[in-house]
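Q: Structure tokens for this one, please.
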Amino acid sequence: MTTGDHKILGNKEVAVIGVPFNAGQPREGVEGGPMKLIESGLLEQIKELGWQPSYQANDDLDDLRPAHDPVVNNLINPKFVSAVTQRLADQIFAYASKRQFVLTLGGDHSLGLATVSGIFRAYPDACLFWVDAHADINTPESTPSGNIHGCPISFLAGLATHPDFEWVKAVLRPERLVYIALRDVDEGEKRIIKDLGIKAFSMHEVDAMGIGRVMELAMDAVNPDRSRPIHLSFDVDALDPSVAPSTGTPVRGGLTFREGHYICEYLAATKLMVSMDVVEVNPALEDEEAAYRTIQVGCSVARSGLGESLL
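A: Here is the predicted structure, written as tokens:
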């Protein structure tokens, strides 16, 4: 990519935002994901692609932890998750409003509350590609676990209310959301997706049609004129566990290494992508070699989203 050829961004600056945070789910270690990605040379790799990265570590998020955070309306850690994601949403909006690319490193996928809120505030006409084994559209009433990393879409789409998340606006219209790589979807989520007519490509469609056709149909659904800003939220559990084993909720039968990277390459080539999340890298899970592979694939999908290509 050369300066000036992006259809929306005004510069070659990348705001890399670390979110060392795990309270949206029960497994320790995912808070270490951002720093491991940085220590693996991600900022230098971004520079080599011709971008100018800055890094916001957000290593003080634990200061926002309340002394008392009981389960409210089935949700676990609601006050802590809300405080962190509200602060991050403002931070992300500030960078996005300067027309910088925003790359957010998780941390668990509850941070989608922050990234989608901040990006859609800056780009109200944006669309969302949610690449994940899970739909993350449970409501407080439907969630079987109470873990907020399985609920962000329901708040962003205006399907859920909760006293601790009154700040979250319904910025996401169903026709602006597309799922890719689904394969572990709760029954309540299936009903929501069907009732709202949300475009969703499970691994069945990826297997049947191939990832190239899936991406064309996904763009046709949410960005038919190829003019809307794109936010990509990429959960590494979208990838098969053989590719990204160190993640909190792995599910067999996921994307291959190349399928995952093709998604990012395709969206980068549109020159419409303004932001990307890489989430749920948990270096504390599995063994050291598995953690290393997962960290490396986290870095490589981020590079693909920023325009790295095979030739």
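A few notes: The mean pLDDT is 97. The longest helix spans residues 78-96.
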